[in-house]
Amino acid sequence: MTVKKAVIPAAGLGTRFLPATKAQPKEMLPVVDKPAIQYIVEEAVASGIESIIIVTGRNKRSIEDHFDRSVELEQTLEEKGKNEILEEIKGISNLASIHYIRQREPLGLGHAVLTARQFIGDEPFAVLLGDDLMMAEKPALRQLMDVHEQTGTDVVGVQHVAPEDVSKYGIIDTRTSRGLVYELADLVEKPSVDEAPSMIAVMGRYVLNPSIFPILASLEKGAGGEIQLTDALRKQCTVSPIHAVSIQGQRYDIGDKFGYLRAGLEMALSRPEMRGQVLSFLNGLCGKIAVRQKTHL
Question: pTM of the prediction?
């Protein structure tokens, strides 16, 4: 069955970015000139998703406002003859059919996915996490959807990570592999490097069958007192195959402060109208740093 619906969990408190996220959702922090969550929605749409449910929490109203129409803003832009940005603004509210539901308690990713059960119904669906921006020629989610259409199984997106980063992620144990596709034997949530079955980490993209919902509903709280999606996938793995796809493309961890800065810088460099200015600034900055270092020798 073709995947047409997606869940974007966006109820987190954004504690790693305090105080910036005290009154503003972390999903609305700008990367160059677009909020982070818009990149996620655009990836979903480019992959063929038609309907999206964003799982929100308190103080997240600005997400809804962003994807809604702003008649006053559109009128102002039209009156000022700013037609190019006007069309871009109109396009945001027409990206997809977007719905919202609140996660009333911070009970984890698995619980956030479970809150979308009624919206999803009895069909496969995608999950995209907002901390992972994926820039790829073929959208990252589309890479997973292609494998799901071939196999009918649950599919997770993965990439290799450095040994020092293993403890930050869910790590897969593989049974077999074929090119960029692995069959999972198990998943381990944030293991130490000595206990990790591989250096291959789950990277915030999933295509899941609705059979995951009964498992999520029956799960007890796991790590951090939360319902973990990884725990549900581990159970699923014992009764039906799960595949992993090595995502081809550049991934930015914008939940990390340096990752966020890197994403903004590299995306600005990818813009023809900004590249020259950014390179000039970086060259000048590197020159200043070199002079300071020589001065302190």
Answer: 0.92
